[in-house]
User: Fold this.
Amino acid sequence: MVKSVVMPDKELTLSDFRPQSKLIVKETAITKPRFPVIDAHNHLGETFGGGWINKPVAQLLEVLDEADVQAFVDLDGGWGEAILDKHMAHFKAAAPERFLHFGGVDWSQWAEQKNRFGEWSADRFRRQVARGAQGLKIWKGLGLNVQDHEGRLVAADDERLDPVWAAAGELDVPVMIHVGDPVAFFDPLDHTNERWEELNAHPDWQFPSPPYPPFMSIMESLARLVKRHPQTIFIGAHVGCYSENLGWVGNVLDQSPDFYVDISARIGELGRQPYTARRFFLQYADRILFGTDMGASVDGYRLHYRFLETDDEYFNYGLSPIPGQGRWYIYGLHLPDDVLEKIYYQNARRVLRLDP
Assistant:
């Protein structure tokens, strides 16, 4: 006798869906990276960095030592001397060879500075470098919501900001620039959006056009900016802010020899296109920096090491049961040693002007 199948009397909600893969594939535990690591994109502040600013530095160093992270770039140096001084007094003073802090731009001062905002910001950044800042961090507000003194949206390649980029070039320090989030953040939040759960959990991460500029207009503005300033090193955060299209990022790298990218917070995107990503890493091995953007976490670092070093298949790219960026898994890139060495520390050491 054939038994009838009893269907549930209610529909399964997406939030309750917890599929368990039945694949039997190898799992490689990477506790130490093949080479020492420089984390070129991370945070130590209260909001993004897990509150390390309020914890003993010795505790942080234990985490970095266990993960074999030799140097850590803190992008939370802020947009003024007070925040920068606080971070340097807490971290840099305790372990000067382990921490690098980036300064920033105070966009709120545009209304007061008006037409001389670019020159004023360049001068402020020179003062930050004199106090110990080793780079400039540009947050994603530029291009999205930064306005000038007349209330007009400021594009990333606005020529009034040229003094800032020129100052970074003159001071020989890099600009870490983040002007675009995942493409789905700019799409309508409907049944076709692959980041529906993430955006519903974080509605302030949505940037639909209108009122925000179209995604590609922001990307093209970034490409024009880095091409116009060949004497300044720009690091495009999160794989050049367009990890979904490595062909586009590669084209910008080809046109702008002083443009670099980091991999922070994007192994979820890179790992679901392993063939394309591996070709990208091999071709641009001299232009890619390691970074996690996950705070200081041993498990987070080891997850990145597994992604870069192994040929493991179909594994979770997050630290929670359901990946936070989308319901997919990733594949390892199995990069050769000469590429790993460049990405883990050699490229960052060169860009950040660190002694061997």
